[in-house]
Design a protein that fits this description.
Elements: E1 56-64, E2 67-79, E3 82-88, H1 92-95, H2 102-107, E4 109-111, E5 116-118, E6 126-130, E7 135-139, E8 164-178, E9 183-197, E10 200-214, E11 219-235, E12 240-248, E13 258-266, E14 282-286, E15 290-296, E16 299-306, E17 309-313, E18 322-329, E19 335-342, E20 354-363, E21 375-383, E22 388-397, E23 400-410, E24 416-427, E25 433-447, E26 452-462, H3 469-477, E27 485-497, E28 502-513, E29 519-532, E30 535-549, E31 552-565, E32 569-578, E33 581-593, E34 596-607, E35 610-623, E36 627-636, E37 640-654, E38 657-662, E39 670-674, E40 682-683, E41 688-689, E42 695-698, E43 707-710, E44 720-724, E45 726-729, E46 736-740, E47 742-745, E48 747-754, E49 766-768, E50 774-777, E51 783-789, E52 794-799, E53 802-808, E54 817-822, E55 824-825, H4 833-838
Parallel strand pairs: 1-7, 39-46, 48-54
Antiparallel strand pairs: 1-2, 2-3, 4-5, 6-7, 8-9, 8-37, 9-10, 10-11, 11-12, 12-13, 13-20, 14-17, 15-16, 15-18, 18-19, 20-21, 21-22, 22-23, 23-24, 24-25, 25-26, 26-27, 27-28, 28-29, 29-30, 30-31, 31-32, 32-33, 33-34, 34-35, 35-36, 36-37, 37-38, 39-42, 40-41, 43-45, 44-47, 48-51, 49-50, 49-52, ...
Length: about 850
């Protein structure tokens, strides 16, 4: 092999189209305008028709209305009556995942022995392949699709993931050395062990602790136990989750208790983001085809076009509150305007929708013992009109029964309110029947004109003989018969002063009991950004709390000031008053990079009948590929010295690979990414790097929601290339998703490919490795820019739909070397390794992978 010097290459792909149209008709190229001596030696078979793709099998990323769906193998077949054309074969399985309405599905026909979908009956639907980015673009008018949202996909495309095992953990350890008394060491661990099979998730939550005191009397304690074991799965057709095993009652009406049994409850996460929670419904009548615009204080929240007649807009975000302005612009130029007022509280449900929760089983203890009567409970909330919701529920448990009924109302300008009453019936062994009522009132209101909000205000009153299920179990089996609730007042509110960048938050709760002292808690905080001389964006925060429990006040006040110093560093001051003692500290904070930061502080504490002491604190945090870690140390003069550390992470094991990873939601949804054996590839801005086997795990994934995961090309090693750097996924709760990126690692070289007779492979020929990956397209004069080369490997060169010759790469390569590579002819009857692999491409990124 020899190297050579390359002149400028005129690949002015002005393929000088001689035809007048880029339609589906054949295109004839004017080769006289190409800067090449061998004009006859050009393979334009793949370019001669607009969007024409040679018949064969291709691995393509499917995009529906510009949204990534997944990567699939697609066969291109010629139509029976059009032998010179080819069309992508979209299988019935893929059609079932497109989210088409039933009426649209009935219009889809099939050809090529029922293997391929024909969308010609769906007006406006187009299918177009694009080999330049290895994609198949499917455009479907909105009228044929169930629902459209940029961050949501229909349930037909939710990914249940692949089978696998997982182990998540959170480890904490600390040691303290007081000036007086015994030294102590403490450690605790908690997490989840799980297994996935199809739609089912098996989970076991565990926790344990260890403590040891050293000194004159050494002692140690330790325990380890499963806190609960359960299984669950999503039921997409019901928009619900089914759970079996040990659990805690989740209810919007009743108190919670631990039980062993099963539950079925609607899951708002399965709804499109704009349909989760409560939001107003905007309805009206359009005289013509009209544009409807919903705004709030001049900001457009929603805009759509509706046909003439009644219309209903049901997909406003549940986060929208306050007064909405609606404008209907008719085709005849007339405009009608009106306003919709809204507020949100937990018991308002969208019109026509029903939220429900059912559970049955028997109460159980933390030691996994069944203790209590068999029970069944259910509750619902029904949006009966645009401003009214009806809700209620009941518990049936033999010696304990209760029923509740309530109603919610949007009061428009006055906010939103809900009220309910619960009646309980209990029978205790040593007493007569006990029955009582509990009334509850809740309110919420956003005051847009004052930029303030009463987030929640509530009042509850319970009669002396009213008992919740938890109180009944305590009295029946543990002889605990105190602390009966009487009255509860709660309020949370905030106020913003946008002109000066000042915000306040206030919360208050007042709980009285029939048989013990009152509890009170107040909390007030304020924050702002100010300028001090030449210093900008100085942050000032003030917080104060008071807790009164058993007639004893516990007061605390905290003040902090932070001054930015450059891009990531800041210095600060904080002062705190608590338990009659004052402390003051100065601190320095710096963010080293996206994954590392630290803070050090020093100061003094005084008061509380104790001497003045100096103190020091340090904190460091690191987000790693294999775990999230932090370390801390503290020193208080004449008092104590302490140090501690935390570590959060996990391991995920599947047939596709295994990896250690940083922490996320314990036992939660995750995505395993595969970079085809290439390690150290940065994912999502470098927050995760693949391990030595090319496997990484992303743990901060949202369930039932479109998630995009990407390779950070700016941080990738020079010898690594990616043909596919972005993947999308929509995973069900607890799933282990799997996606493969197109990544190659190896040297790069500019080469001239030459045949034995001195000619070159034609312009447009494809160079592929033994795995069937295309590494280059041959240009003028046999020029090819090759990437991902491995020393000593053999590459196939294909044109006219077959492998025509093969080249051998030198065993020793220098990056970006210039090479002259002889291309040895391959007999037409011989099938090369690359051709075999090309004909046997398997799916790597199916939304529903066959198990």
């Amino acid at each position: 092999m020899s190297t050579f010097h390359i002149n400028k290459i005129s690949l002015a792909m002005a393929f000088a189209l001689a035809s007048t149209s880029m339609s589906s008709k054949a295109v004839e190229f004017n080769t006289d305008m190409l800067d090449t001596a061998d004009k006859a030696n050009i393979d334009f078979s793949r370019f001669s028709k607009a969007n024409y793709i040679l018949p064969g099998l291709y691995q393509l990323g499917l995009r529906v209305n510009d949204q990534n769906v997944g990567e699939y193998p697609f066969n291109y077949y010629p139509r029976d009556n059009e032998p010179d054309s080819s069309e992508a074969c979209v299988s019935p399985q893929i059609v079932s995942e497109l989210g088409l309405k039933p009426a649209a599905l009935n219009k889809v026909t099939y050809w090529h022995q029922g293997e391929c979908a024909d969308f010609s009956q769906l007006d406006g639907t187009t299918v177009r392949g694009d080999l330049s980015n290895s994609s198949l673009q499917l455009s479907i008018p909105q009228a044929w699709i169930e629902y459209s949202d940029p961050n949501w996909v229909p349930s037909s495309r939710w990914d249940e993931g692949i089978p696998g095992l997982l182990l998540d953990y959170s480890l904490n350890a600390s040691m303290s050395r007081p000036n007086e008394g015994s030294n102590s060491q403490n450690a605790s661990i908690s997490g989840t062990v799980g297994a996935n099979a199809g739609a089912w998730r098996l989970r076991g939550d565990y926790q344990g602790s260890y403590s040891r005191a050293s000194g004159s009397s050494q002692s140690s304690e330790h325990n380890m136990d499963w806190s609960r074991v359960y299984m669950y799965r999503a039921l997409p057709t019901l928009r619900s989750t089914l759970s079996v095993g040990e659990n805690y009652l989740s209810s919007s009406i009743f108190d919670s208790w631990r039980y062993t049994g099963m539950s079925l409850s609607s899951d708002d996460r399965m709804l499109p983001p704009a349909l989760r929670g409560y939001a107003p419904e905007v309805s009206g009548i359009a005289k013509t085809n009209a544009k409807v615009v919903v705004t709030q204080q001049g900001r457009v929240l929603y805009e759509t076009t509706v046909p003439s007649g009644p219309f209903r807009i049901q997909d406003l975000s549940s986060a929208v509150t306050g007064k909405l302005d609606v404008k209907v612009e008719e085709q005849d130029g007339t405009v009608q305007t009106f306003q919709v007022d809204t507020a949100t509280i937990p018991y308002l449900t969208r019109p026509g929708m029903v939220r429900y929760k059912f559970a049955m089983g028997r109460p159980s203890t933390y030691e996994h013992h069944i203790q209590g009567p068999t029970f069944a409970t259910g509750e619902f909330s029904w949006g009966i009109a645009n401003s009214w919701s009806l809700y209620g529920g009941s518990i049936l448990a033999g010696d304990y029964n209760s029923a509740s009924m309530g109603i919610g109302r949007d009061l428009f300008l006055l906010g939103a309110i809900s009220a309910d009453v619960t009646q309980s019936f209990a029978r205790l062994p040593s007493e007569e029947k006990r029955q009582g009522k509990s009334w509850r009132l809740s309110y919420s209101k956003r005051f847009d004109e004052y930029d303030s909000e009463v987030t929640f205000a509530g009042y509850r009153f319970s009669e002396r003989d009213y008992m919740s299920m938890g109180e009944f179990l305590d009295a029946r089996y543990h002889e605990e018969n105190s602390g009966h609730d009487k009255e509860l007042y709660t309020i949370t509110a905030n106020k913003n002063f946008s002109e000066v960048g000042l915000s306040f938050y206030f919360s208050y709760s007042h709980q009285t009991y029939w048989d013990q002292p009152t509890d009170d808690r107040y909390s007030l905080s304020g924050s702002t950004y100010v300028s001090l001389f030449s210093l900008k964006n100085v942050s000032l925060n003030v917080s104060a709390t008071r807790s009164k429990i058993s007639e004893r006040n516990d007061d605390a006040v905290f003040v902090s000031l932070s001054i930015p110093m450059g891009n990531s560093a800041s210095i600060g001051y904080d002062g705190q008053y608590s338990n009659n003692r004052y402390s003051q500290n100065v601190s320095y904070y710096d963010r080293v990079d996206n994954n590392n930061n630290y803070r050090v502080s020093t100061g003094v504490s005084s008061g509380g009948d104790e001497s003045t002491r100096t103190q020091f604190n340090g904190y460091y945090s690191h987000r790693g590929d294999f775990a999230d870690m932090s370390a801390n140390a503290a020193y208080s003069q004449g008092n104590y010295t302490s140090a501690g550390m935390t570590m959060q992470g996990g391991a995920t094991i599947t047939a596709k690979g295994a990896a250690l990873h940083s922490g996320g939601i314990s036992g939660g949804t995750r995505l395993m990414v595969d970079t085809e054996g290439v390690g150290g590839v940065p994912i999502n801005g470098g927050r995760v790097h693949t391990n030595g086997y090319g496997i990484g795990v992303i743990t901060d994934m949202n369930s039932y929601y479109r998630n995009s995961t990407s390779i950070d090309l700016t941080k990738m090693a020079d010898d690594v290339d990616s043909s596919r750097s972005v993947v999308d996924s929509a995973l069900t709760d607890g799933a282990i998703g799997y996606r493969k990126f197109g990544v190659t690692k190896g040297a790069k070289a500019l080469a001239v490919l030459a045949m034995a007779d001195g000619s070159h492979p034609p312009f447009g020929a494809s160079v592929r490795n033994s795995e069937g990956k295309e590494l280059a397209i041959v240009g003028d004069g046999g020029i090819a820019w090759l990437t991902g080369l491995q020393g000593g490997e053999s590459l196939d060169v294909l044109w006219d739909g077959a492998t025509q010759c093969a080249i051998s790469i030198p065993k020793t390569l220098r990056d970006q070397e210039q090479l002259l590579l002889p291309c040895h002819t391959v007999a037409q009857s011989q099938t090369s390794t690359a051709a075999k692999n090309s004909a046997a491409i398997e799916p790597t990124d199916n939304i529903h992978e066959e198990q």
